Amino acid sequence: MHASQLLAALNQRLQQQSVTDALTGLHNRYYLQQIVDPLLAAARRQGRVLHCLLIDLDNFKQVNDLCGHQAGDAVLQQMAALLKRLVRQSDHLIRWGGEEFLLILESTESPDLFLQRLQQAMKDEPWLQSEQQPTKISGSVGVVTYPFMDNNNWSWTQALALADKALYQVKASGKAGWLQLIPDSQADEPRYWLQRDVPQMLSSGAFRFEASLEVKAKLQQLLVATAMQD
Length: 230
Description:
Elements: H1 3-18, H2 29-46, E1 50-57, H3 60-67, H4 69-86, E2 92-97, E3 100-105, H5 111-124, E4 139-146, H6 156-172, E5 177-183, H7 190-193, H8 198-203, E6 207-211, H9 213-229
Parallel strand pairs: 4-5
Antiparallel strand pairs: 1-3, 1-4, 2-3, 5-6
Helix pairs in contact: 3-4, 4-5
């Protein structure tokens, strides 16, 4: 192989390493920075939406604290392999940081169908176990479908921040579930709304939501309690 070919191969390898998470082999945040603009442009041009799922492993700190970081790393690798089995070739799977994963689905399928498969797969997964480690690992998921059908005032970054708020509302609602927040035309000031909590968003009438059964029930109870206080 000529020197120029060796250099080209080395550059290609370095480029691949720069967009790959070393632990899980998934894409990293830098990968998203590289593809997000053409990805959004193609979606708008073709009249498609992107389903964005922000996934956080529940009680992951306990795994690290009780079993050590090596066990935690093994759980992250196992979760990455599980997600790889579920996604399509056109989807984008990213280790977002720590125990969080970002999944971008380029699919006409409703995200709740994928989420049902994800929840079942996590229940069925033979997670690595020790005497201290929980026998099951669950996940909390915040979801947005972007661009929003009834509101074009939200940027991509703001949409991801909304998914993050949805994720932490799932955490507050007992974990092991998912929540999708959907702004309508009234939610035309993203910075204002991102400073509000999820119950405030929903009680305002400016947002709709879809959720797993347990999360939906707890949110509805919370909204009833909020309305009675008002």
